[in-house]
Write a structure and sequence with these properties.
Elements lengths: L1 H9 L4 H6 L3 H7 L24 H25 L4 H33 L3 E6 L5 E6 L3 H11 L8
């Protein structure tokens, strides 16, 4: 959306206006097209999107990204304070980042709560003919290993 906003602000700009705004190098490379890059000109790359295969680490990364985006919008608002229309769009985008941060926080709490549960449920057949569910409390891995080694489904027919 920010790229679209910049495009709308520059699409009808004259070469003189582009040069005066300090956009001549950007214009030389990209015209007035949207080219995702940082303020220092570093192009966007998928390396910015960190994934670890761990839900807590991934959600923490999402939370950080939302806060960084919010902070960027605040700086853009400071720079555009003389253009009310642009500031309105940036305020909307900043608020959206705040809501995303809240939703990721809720998801993180849900994952943490789920991982903190002590019960482990497993369907198994101990050979007694009954296909019973086992509920083991405490250390899940130890309890599961003990049940497998003891061939115990809780039916007391070992």
């Amino acid at each position: 959306m920010v790229g679209t906003l910049v495009h709308q602000l520059t699409k009808n700009a004259s070469i003189e206006e582009i040069e005066k705004a300090g956009l001549a190098p950007y214009y030389t490379d990209h015209g007035v097209d949207v080219y995702p890059a940082s303020a220092s000109g570093v192009p966007f790359t998928a390396a910015y999107i960190a994934c670890k295969g761990d839900p807590i680490a991934n959600l923490q990364e999402d939370l950080a990204a939302e806060q960084k985006a919010r902070a960027t919008y605040e700086k853009l608002i400071d720079l555009c304070r003389d253009n009310a229309d642009v500031v309105d769009v940036l305020k909307f985008l900043r608020e959206r980042e705040v809501v995303h941060f809240q939703r990721f926080g809720e998801a993180l709490r849900g994952v943490q709560d789920k991982l903190a549960e002590k019960n482990f449920y497993m369907n198994g057949n101990c050979g007694c003919g009954n296909n019973n569910s086992m509920n083991t409390s405490g250390n899940t891995i130890t309890a599961m290993n003990n049940n497998l080694m003891n061939n115990s489904c809780g039916c007391n027919n070992n």
